[in-house]
Amino acid sequence: MSAAVGSPAPREPAHGAPATGAHATPGTPAAGTFAASAGVELAVVERSGFVESRHVGSAVVLSPAGDILSTLGDPSAPIIPRSCLKPFQALAVLRGLDGSGVSLDAVQTVLATASHAGTPEHVAVVQSILQLAGLAPDALQCPHDWPGSSGARDALVRAGLDRSPLYMNCSGKHAAMLLACVVNDWPLDTYLEPSHPLQQRILATIEELTGESVAASAVDGCGAPVHAVSLVGLARGIGRITSALTLAPLLSPVDAADAPVDVFAPAVSEHAASGGDDGASDHTAALGFDRLVSAEAATLTASVLANGWAIDGPGRANTLCIDELAVFSKLGAEGVMVMSTTAASAAPSAAEASGHSEPLATGDAAAPAAATGTAGTTVALKMLDGNLRAATLVGLTLLVRAGALSQASVDAVLPRLDLTVYGGTAPVGAIRLGEALLPAH
After folding, report:
1. Which of 77, 125, 150 is nearest to 381 (CA)?
2. Residue 26: what are its φ and ψ, rounded to 5°?
3. How many CA atoms lie within 13 A of 254 on its CB side?
4. Residue (of 164, 88, 177, 167) closest to 130 by Cα position
5. 147 Cβ partners below 8 Å, 6+ apart?
6. Which region among 68-82, 125-139, 361-375 has the lowest average model confidence (pLDDT)?
7. CB neighbours (10 Å) of residue 233?
8. Which residues face 431 on adjacent strands?
9. Strands (E), 269-425
């Protein structure tokens, strides 16, 4: 097993924020995200013609080049992305496996970034990762839980079985973390400690991709460290990961684990000066990239697109967006959502795009998505009340208005997103867009 090289030195979270969930001193204001007064009405719940609830939040849309296309509320304020950080955590794991002779297959890669439903299929993949590490389920330090899938939960109850860490929605992430520890000879018992080499690498990966120092650190619901960044930084990092797939044919094969390209290692100009592929330099420049991206990021994105069921569950929102729209979609607890289009996403026709009031990612309404890069247009949003029920609707709407998705493709998915409000068994209302997203009068 290979030893790790170049592990970052342990350091304290930015601004002296506690990494272990310590409470603020009584009488002192706690650090936190933006206030309601800084947010806008992103969605409402309407029942029998009466607006029953309002979802206030913030959002940002970035072009594939990382330029801000539109903002709502205050996307520069720090938020805790919760499971929206899993792609960064999974990428750190993939990088940690490099050179070890051990690798994750496509479905295992998705489970490393999943908030899964705990179906038997999900659990089997988690177990396969643990077997790869030579570990038993009791090595997992995530909480004992029931499956999120009601069918899987009912089957366990009927069988007289109890909760297990295997069923917890973060178990794939934890199993992958343990595998990285095994191949690098890192301690297993302390793999969730902020000072652990793996957690330090994850922190460095988050800061590297988001382009921000974390604003605070805390403990996630699964027990792992979680770090606060802005919605702008979150969107930037996710966009960099998903846009790697566009560049993969010019850099290295998506599955070329034996010859990965380091994340953001050389600048494009340096790459070209050293005799690198001129096509890669030209393409990254056309997309607005100033750095190359990694084969690991391309692998992660390609794996998710090919196995949407694994990141969430059949019929669930993230899986629907991945399978039906080819949109990389990842939810996070407490109302956080990230979405990023890919080259396979249904971009609007030139005629449809020309009618958008929001700027397109390319600035050219007639430009084809695959050629100029609406692939990698990314949304990050936070519902301040922590409720995710309208997050997918809002995210998809913002991608349509950015010219990165066709309205027709989204309209085909919306009826499957559980947006209907019922009175008894009869539809009496709907979850719909809020004032900030309604067409201007």
Report:
1. 77
2. -55, 135
3. 19
4. 177
5. 117, 118, 119, 123, 153, 156, 167
6. 361-375
7. 26
8. 45
9. 327-332, 336-341, 378-383, 420-423
The Cα–Cα gap between 396 and 325 comes to 10
Least trusted range by pLDDT, from 63-77, 261-275, 374-388: 261-275
- CA pair distance 174, 177, nearest whole angstrom: 5
Is 138 exposed, middle or buried, given 0-12, 13-18 or 19+ CB atoms closer than 10 A?
Answer: exposed
- DSSP 8-state secondary structure symbol assigned to residue 29: P
Distances in Å between the Cα of 369 and the Cα atoms of 62, 106, 113, 377 are 15, 26, 27, 10
The predicted-structure confidence for 131-189, as pLDDT tens digits, reads as follows 999 999 999 999 999 999 899 999 989 999 999 999 999 999 999 999 999 999 999 99
Show Cβ contacts of residue 344 under 8 Å, excluding neighbours closer than 6 positions. 305, 326
Residue 1: which residues within 8 A CB-CB, separation 6 or more?
100, 182, 183, 184, 185
User: At residue 428, what is the residue type?
Assistant: V
C-beta separation of 183 from 257 below 8 A: no
Type of residue found at 209: L
Q: Which amino acid is at 152?
A: A
Q: Report how far residue 23's alpha carbon sits from residue 418's, in angstroms, rounded to the nearest whole number.
A: 37
- Tell me how far apart the alpha carbons of residues 342 and 190 are, in angstroms, rounded to a whole number: 37
The pTM score is 0.82
* Residue 337 · residue 234 · CB < 8 Å: no
Contact between 214 and 204 under an 8 Å Cβ cutoff? The reply is no
Structure-block tokens of residue 111: 């489970």
Task: Specify whether the CB–CB gap between 226 and 218 falls below 8 A.
Answer: yes
Contact 434, 55 (CB under 8 A): yes
| Residue 46, strand partner residues | 51, 430
Report how far apart, in Å, the C-alpha atoms of 108 and of each of 126, 220, 308 are: 7, 22, 12
| Of residues 337, 307, 390, the one with CA closest to residue 83 | 337
By C-alpha distance, which of 144, 142, 155 is closest to 114? 142
Distance of CA 303 to the CA centre of its chain: 13
Q: How does pLDDT run across 353-364, given as a tens digit for each residue?
A: 555 444 333 222
